[in-house]
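Handoff note, outgoing to incoming analyst
You'll be picking up this chain. Sequence as last confirmed:
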Amino acid sequence: MKLLTGCLVMILMVSPLVSTGHAENDLSLYINDQEITADMYIENGRTQLDGKVVTDLLGLETKGYVPLREVFEDNNATVYFESSTNTIYVSKKEELSAEDIVVKAEEFMEKQNTYRMTGEGEMNLDFDLPEQAPEETSSEQNMTFNMKADVRHDPFSVFVVQEMDVPMHDLSDEVEGSKLFMTDEKMYQKFEEDTWIVSELDELGIDGMQHLMNLDPASSLELSKDYGVDYSLNEQVVIDEEDYYLVNISLDQDGFKKLLKDLYDMDDMLDLYEDEEVTKSMKEVFDSLDITMDYDMYVNKETFETTKIESKIDYNIEELSMSLTQTADIYDYGVELDFVDIENTITFEELHEKQMEQFEEEFEKPEETTKEKPEELQGTVAEKFNFEIIGIDAGAGIMHITSKAKDSYESLEYFDSMHASQNAMEAELQASIENEEWVVATGWTPHWKFSKWDLEFLEDPEGVYGEGEDIKAVVREELEKDMEDVHEFIDEFYMTDEELGEVMNLIDYKAMDEEKAREKWVKENDEIVKDWVPEDFDGEGKEVQLGYMNWQCSIAQAHTVKEVLQSYNYEVELIEASPALILTDMADSGIDVFVSAWETTHETYLDKFEDDIEVLGPVYEDARIGLVVPSYVDVESITELNE
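Most recent structure output, in case you need it:
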């Protein structure tokens, strides 16, 4: 938008209507290097300008004479007076629309050609459960992820590495980083350690992507507007003492579906199904799709460099709802990037054939293949354990580690890992303990089973299961100044394995409502609570925001803290989120307290926000995973399991 230039042209054309000469002070006025003829005079050291000029230039309703400097500076212009020539210079930047800023930002990216991105986000799933699902099964799944990417515009290349944390019971099962590499013709995905799955973009039905890659920023903007993309300019923000535009970009359901249909040739893809009923069903699913996108771009006002984007996508289809939020930093513009060398490629068809061959091989074996037990192991410790390790779901992180342990310890060579649900594992453990049978199982702390049964971890001299780690309390930086008593309480808050296990036992094993469970425990452990809180502890209705994760231990810790605070007249709001989002909000002076920060597991986030949060002492020590046995079992180390 070139509003000022247009106004100047009009003024020059009708200058006789404005003024016919200089004021008595012989002042000269230049606006954006254009000389303007106007009546002016200096009074008390301030230049007064004919209001008619202001009306014509800025569209402001003015009468008489107005102070020149104040009027223009109030309208985002700079004013400079050159005393030697009695000349006033006014520089006013052209107003940019949201669309203009986006084009300039993309032109900056193309000119730099390369950049890097790092980001983190959260995916929340909510789905309908089948009627036969167990009562304890949750219909919600929350996952956090981290992303790194290298991007080059010409020739087009993108390399993305992503890691996702999936809550599994009390553990966070970190999935190995998935990798994707894309050029303007091919896409490579890495699902196995040494194998890349290669696909031609045209074979995937996304020919439209290649067209979009080759569009210049202005044409790309026009095309996006055809799909209903909305651009709006929010209030400017300041980051590291620099001014930034904040541009919001959104796309509604209809526009998104139209874009998907054109980009991915959805009609042709759906028609690939040979079964007409399947094709009809898939089209009905696509028609029911409800998806919207909204994201913000942070663009430097001087350079038009985009340094951060925040995005959110909401997705609803039949029985599934998904919300995906992500924050990404963009940096290292113009650096030389070394992209991954692609070797050992395989197509999806070849991968499918390979998987089918493996399945057929396994299918021919009616039982899990285990090593035949040699006669010399009869009467040994291993036989007393029936050569079995009682575990949980096969996909859980602790089961993957147990598989590695079997490769690291000769004592586990002839043991079989028995996969089952967590409930089934606990039932098997309980039955064995009641009969005082020898049993070894996977275990982790904090967990209620350690308060219910006398269990011990087996020594792990090879360190396969890793070392224990402390769980820390974290508070926002200003909490001690704002609520000194709460800060003192959280700094003293600490639960032993038995104490935390009791709360978890009430909630998880006895299926008690969280509110009733915390009330019962706090009431029965009044002396412990008194050691946590300062004298004359009284919140007088002050509000405290308390973050927690959807892990059994974090739920128990947060509800215990909430009950204590409420009993001392505090208003407490529980906020469930991922550690990344909790600590991000806390660093921004939001959430006050988080008592479930795992010292090693969450180290990345704790280090990132160390200047904006305060890490207090441990609330739980030596949280760990490994193999456990009842205390009556006369074995202390994994190395003794075949003696």
